[in-house]
Amino acid sequence: MALMITDECINCDVCEPECPNSAISQGAEIYEIDPNLCTECVGHYDEPQCQQVCPVDCIPHNPDMKETKEELYQKYMIISAA
């Protein structure tokens, strides 16, 4: 599953530089995660780095983007090849 950032985001700027796929960017009000680029760090790390550094725990799984670890790895392979 891709991740998402909720309204609890305080715009602390710590998640964006941690994303190895550049899936996190500043939105109109809070940071946003592009589900097409989010692999939950599969292929890079064992744990999603944005979740590890978020001080307010506002980065849950996106229920609209259900993906298996295998699907996330395939997405990682496509992103890495580009």
From TrEMBL:
PANTHER family assigned: PHOTOSYSTEM I IRON-SULFUR CENTER, PHOTOSYSTEM I IRON-SULFUR CENTER-RELATED
Keyword Hydrolase tagged: no
Protein's UniProt name: Ferredoxin
Keyword Metal-binding: yes
Ranges where the 4Fe-4S ferredoxin-type domain occurs: 1-29, 31-64
Keyword vocabulary terms for this entry: 4Fe-4S, Electron transport, Iron, Iron-sulfur, Metal-binding, Repeat, Transport
One Gene Ontology MF term: metal ion binding
Organism: Amantichitinum ursilacus
Domain of life the protein comes from: Bacteria
